[in-house]
Amino acid sequence: MKSSIVIYGLDKFFLNEIVEGLIGKYETNEQNLFDWTIDTKYYTVDVQVHPLDRKILVEESIANSAQVLIVLIDPTELNNCTKLDSWLPFLSVLNDCETKLLVARNFEKISSTMSKTDIKQWCTNNQYELLELEKTSTSETEEEEDDDNDDDNAAESNHLCRDVYGIPRLLETLHVHQWPNMNLKDRREINRNLAAQLKTKLNFDQETSHMNNQSIEKNEQIDSSLTSNNHHDIDPFGMENIFEQMKKYKEQADQLTGDERKDFAEKVILSLWKDIGIDDEDNDDE
After folding, report:
1. Which burial class, exposed, middle or buried, applies to 104 when counting CB atoms under 10 A from its CB (0-12, 13-18, 19+)?
2. Which of 35, 68, 187, 278 could lock 5 by a disulfide, CB 3.0 to 4.6 Å apart?
């Protein structure tokens, strides 16, 4: 049986916007189930999306296959946590979902009798993740405060890009979900995708500058670190700690300028290609 994503939304326009943003245009059917293939750099998975525009219990078959639960809310309609609690009896059969999301456009017009902090606390108490789809004047400040005050969850959230909003933010969360029926892509295809991603991450500024003795010494140190690193000793896909290495390389690149950075980026890519098993023949096919 395919895994399913259950989406509740009393605002039909908001619900339709989210579903179309995920799976594209769709036509209603009697089962109210819509097939969707999630296709990422590393895997594909066939799922079913089940949108609901009212508070009802889902059928047992849907509850058993549900992996993700998404509840869309309008903060302007919330004046206390009781309204959020009113959802719980209908969501109880979905409590075993690995990912549970409470999603709102933004919290700029939240009721004066309730704060965003209250909603966050409700999410914590009921094991939901809160997603705000629209960037507001307070979004960045609040996220920085979250980072400072929520170190325990840092490891779980550091894979997400904080400057992503709208449907891409929701997709980002769905992509990192561990789907039980996902099909991993071929190792070579994964490596190609990873290399392309690393190219983008190493797209440093291309200012012009002249090499000096100090920068030459830095490059020699970097060359040494590149040749001594092997990213696939433990991980057969060549991805073990690779982003930790990227952070290190970025710090080294920040000490360089212009042509030095460009040269360094090429060296890093070549080193990583070698480590993850992409040979020159592969590169020529790009």
Report:
1. buried
2. 68
Are residues 266 and 163 part of one domain?
A: no
State the Cα–Cα distance between residues 217 and 207, nearest whole angstrom: 20
- The CA distance from 190 to 183, in Å, is 12
Q: Is the pLDDT of residue 145 over 60?
A: no
Say if residue 120 is exposed, middle or buried (CB neighbours under 10 Å; 0-12, 13-18, 19+): middle
For residue 238, is it left (φ>0), alpha (ψ between -120 and 50) or beta? left
Please answer whether residues 24 and 17 qualify as being in contact, where contact means their C-beta atoms are separated by less than 8 angstroms.
no
Tokens 């309730």 correspond to 114
Domain boundary among 137, 159, 183: 183
Q: What are the strands, taking DSSP E only, across 14-127?
A: 34-39, 43-52, 66-72, 99-104
Taking CB atoms within 8 Å and a gap of at least 24, the contacts of 18-27 are 18/51, 18/70, 18/72, 18/103, 18/167, 18/170, 19/49, 19/51, 21/166, 21/167, 21/170, 22/49, 22/167, 22/170, 22/171, 22/174, 23/49
- In the beta sheet, which residues pair with residue 66? 4
Write out the DSSP string of 236-262. Answer: TTS-TTHHHHHHHHHHHHTT--HHHHH
Q: In terms of residue numbers, what domain contains 65?
A: 3-183
Residue type at position 170: L
Q: How confident is the model at residue 240 (pLDDT cuts 50, 70, 90)?
A: very low
pLDDT value, residue 278: 52
Tell me the CA end-to-end span of the chain in Å, nearest whole number. Answer: 37
Same-domain check for residues 87 and 26: yes
Q: Are residues 278 and 152 in the same domain?
A: no
Identify whether residues 149 and 24 lie together within a single domain: yes
